[in-house]
Amino acid sequence: MNLDHMTLREKVLQTFIVTIREINRHGGPERFFRDYPVGGMYFQELKRPLGENEAEMGTSTSLEQVERCRKAAPYPLLVCADSARAKGQEVFPSTRSLGGSLCLEDAYNYGRIAGVQMRENGIDWILQPNTDLYYNRSMPFLAATYDPVMNGEIYARVVEGIQEQGICATVKHFPGLGTTNINMHFAAGQNNLEFEEWMNTYGRGYQRTFAAGVCAVMTSHITLKSYAAEGERGFAPIATYSSALTTGLLKELLGFGGVVVTDALIMGGMAAGDLVAETVQAFRAGADMLLWPPVEAADRIVSLIEEGEIPMERLEDALTRISRMRQFRENAAVPVAADVAFINRVGEEIIRHGICCVRNEAGLLPLGPQYKKILLINASESEEDILLLRQEFSSRGFFAEIGRDIYDVESRVCWQDEIDRLQEPYDLVVFSVNTPLSASWSVPFMHIWASHLFQKSKKLIINYGSPYFAEDYFPEDPTLIQVNSAPSRAAVKAVVDGILGEMEFVGRPWRREEEERMEKSLRK
Hints:
alpha/beta; TIM Barrel; 16 strands; 12% strand
């Protein structure tokens, strides 16, 4: 795209990625792009059909509306998204499965699937994968593995798989989530590693994905005080606002030559009370593209460049990097149309490879013919989880019932004699666990309490969430399966296949001693 004939304001707006809300807040696509010819747009699938007189006013929009925006834009739009479904896709693997299997071929295929999802929806750029490491046991579990070396190898292959589909990939959340459990939607996060250790872990992983050619890095509302302890111009020392982290560390020391994009500029973790000033500081710090900024900030950036407060080189650097990403997208060979059957089959393989039999100390698995009556108990916030499991067991000829009201609601107590009467008629009791990491007086956690009152010899724990959660809450249960995937139909079927011996659990369980050994080796 030729930038020579653009005005300074138009060039600045090429660094803006807007939501449909921002577009409709300024009169809709035709009027908006006439007044604000931005370079990027964010796509998120609509959760429900819109009524006749409704307009998209959040982050979600339709592909038809995206196409309308493309037509209205005077310059080509880079459309980005966190995710999108391919038509006919039924299986959606998670990177958690990659941490279970540690299979680089699965990582590459995971990337291919993610790339196809984007390509089939006409999206240019995916804001994935998350390459964070999880040191803190209370952090919501999104990473593949705690091993920084393997993490880098896994995500390099994910990036390759995405970009071979002609889609720009993004690694995030620089400088890296995982050392604390702070949610950046609500407050600024922290990476509290000493800098040498950071370089040997997070830094090593980022550099491996850079070597794989990743197009973009997302900075986020996270500090790394071992490298940049002080804020700039009154702003917190988070990467979003820190030229030391964004320019000094990411671009110069680590040598990243692609596009640096901010995390969403609306989160509680970066809020300072002035959206325009916040956007200006993120750009000044070194961000090349600004995610969800107020478009009014463009005129302020223009003024500061004209006044010499922001060097023209800062804008030129951003435009050069954006041009390289556009060139990648334009030059990418378009693969043959996706085979959705292949996507679903490979997705199932990724899920299956990541499932781990952590413990089978009671010899329950595979289930013998004596286990005919099964009691299912849902330690999850979703009713759908247990219904899928009942359907799968019932389809195999088992008598499977869902246990409800297994604790005293008024007193919030689980009674042993009540549990004994409940479990007596059943050959097997299965707990389906998929809970948040903080305990509360809720149904899922009351059922976890109750789980410890059941006979260990006929109890099976299936955990879909963090392996840390299972290790902490079920340390002595003799039969435990770690799924490393959401409880989808494909995942539930794979789990039951393994329980019945129709599939081998090939995933590798996380072990605390391995984690401790890794940490010691990094400190040497």
